[in-house]
Amino acid sequence: MKGRLSDIFRYSTHIYKAVLVAGSVLVLLYFFPQRESFPYRYAKGQLWRYPDLYAPMDFSVDEAADAVRKRKDSVLQTTPAFIREIPVDTQAVFRRIAGELRPASRWQLFGKPASVKAAHQAFSALYRHQIVRGMPDSLLRHPVWLRRGKQVMMLDSTGFLTLEGIKPFLEKHLDKLPPDERRRVMAAFFKHVKPTAEFDDAYTRKFLTTALESVRPAKKFYYKGERLASTGERLSDAQVRALDTLKQIYARDQRNFGWIRLGFVLIVLTLFALFLFYLYLYEEPIYTNNAALTLIFINILLVSVMVFVVQRYWPFYVFAVPFIILPVIVQTFFNRRVALFALVIGVVIASLGVTETTTYGLVQMTAGLAALLSMRDMTSRSQMFLSIMRVVVVYAVVYTGYMLVRQGDWAGLDWRIFLLFLLSGILAVVLMHELILLFEKMFGLASDVSLLELLNTNNKLLRNLAEKAPGTFQHSVQVANLAEAIANELGANALLVRVGALYHDIGKMKNPKYFTENQTSGINPHENLPPVESARIIIRHVLDGIEMARKNNLPERIIDFIRTHHGRGLVYYFYNKAKEQNEEVNPEDFRYPGPDPFSKETAILMMADSVEAASKSLARPTAEQIDNLVDQIIERQLQEGLLMNSDLSLKEISKAKKVLKSKLKNIYHLRVAYPGMK
């Protein structure tokens, strides 16, 4: 039992993260908008008894089935019949006919059998047509096209005869012969006449199939916001078909909603997993701080749920949701990288729940980026309002550009959307400040507003520091000035650095006389202590400072400065003193608990604190001495790897050294010695 409890406590932070992710997914799933069933009853010719109905999304309506059937019937009636030529020796055919007529003919005309002469005339007329074999009676009135290899030519109605049509044709051309002779001639024709073409059934069927397949229902497109029915209007056939299509869309979405929810869960779980993995790799202090994680997840849930609720009940107003509060609040408490990641997650989740997924995602992503860039300073409502107005302009520009790309003209713009953008900005101004204060109280985190309050030197903690350790207080003020100047030069959070510098040494209040800046009487209590004990007292001020800070409810962002301002460095003075007494000294007994600085701001404080403290050892400093001092201290920190985990580059460290040298020279009133001056 004890083993199980110990395992639970050991993995409690991981269990909490799993519960946080699972709970967030369940909340999002509960509010994920499901399209309602189609609530209207209607019929063709009836009056529309409901309020005006507008298309909730873009959709298309197929042509009526009767109209499609009529067009197919027309194709069936006008599809041509195809015939293909058959090679025939017409002279041989006529010789056989003539040979059968000569022996028995008694009716002479100019010494030549009259039947043969009449047969020749009829034969010539007959073979001026295509004589077709196998033509169905149903196609006799259709156009007839003759195929000659790859060529196709159309025949008129007199351009072909079927074998069945030969009889009336011959009777017409042999009407001058006596009846008996005419029958004998026609019998010879029927016996020997050969067709010159035959019906091409396979090609005709193929052509007909292709023609019928090309008859597809025409589509009428309806765009979001287009009016489908007005109150009191009598419904036409086209309106009924549009309503039927809309009803089918609603029914299909309800049938597929289970799969839709599963897909939504898979996407959300993937996003949260990637986010946690990013924090684990690059933002470990946030990853290990469950309160910070909870704050980020709450903000993602807050904006997503607002979007889902508005989409379900008031879909037109979905752009009025103040979505940009998500990246701004996260940036206020953490940093821009985490805020950007949270913005991406929030935009993807919210976009999955709205009808216009692409439009909403593009507009909110762009506006969120604009908010991150323009809303760095949250110290006053006026600055916040100006920044929000810039974001509203970005909203409008991006929405206009996207609609022009999609529609190709200005007709697709809904000018009411611009009012929703303005409303979104106003709501963001109203909510943002109050939410930041609420989250500060809930999670013990610090925003710029709280940092400004902590700058007040009349607050209890700083006042006690000034009374109990006045030298430390003055040292902290000087370090704050140096660190703030470096932060401004490097583009870091100068306000955070200054506040961190003011509070970084509050632990010295517990034993102020053990620190040189507070030893005004000339008595040094370390003289009567072994070096290892002195080092323990010096190191202890970091842990005492963390304890005091938490007791006085200082934000974790400020406590980070207390923990890291010495990193894992050595107390060199007492370490070297101990080595003089005994070569076998354990350096871990003289090492601060750390951790090393893990951000630009904490690294800046370490550099400023070390340089300012060391500069007090210079009795009459010169410009050259200050330059050498700064270079030596920063170089030693680099060699020991104390700045390795910070975000500072070598170029930024070089800039920091220049600022430190310049500021220290100003503090000690050093001037360039001009020629002729003593």
Describe this structure in words.
The chain has 678 residues and is an alpha/beta fold. The protein folds into three domains: 21-33 and 256-444, Arp2/3 complex 21 kDa subunit ARPC3; 68-213, no CATH class; 450-667, Hypothetical protein af1432 (Orthogonal Bundle). It has 27 helices and twelve strands. The chain has helices spanning 2-10, 12-31, 65-78, 90-101, 114-126, 166-173, 179-192, 201-213, 237-255, 257-282, 284-287, 290-313, 325-333, 336-352, 357-374, 381-407, 416-443, 448-454, 460-468, 470-490, 494-503, 531-551, 556-564, 572-581, 600-615, 623-639, 650-667; strands at residues 53-54, 59-62, 81-85, 108-109, 112-113, 130-133, 144-148, 151-155, 160-162, 197-199, 219-222, 227-229. The strands form four sheets. It has a six-stranded mixed beta sheet, covered by helices on one side. The chain has a two-stranded antiparallel ribbon with strand order 1-12. Strand 4 (108-109) and strand 5 form a beta hairpin. The longest helix is centred in the middle third of the chain and has 28 residues, at 416-443. The protein starts with a helix and ends in an 11-residue tail after the last helix. 31% of the residues are buried.
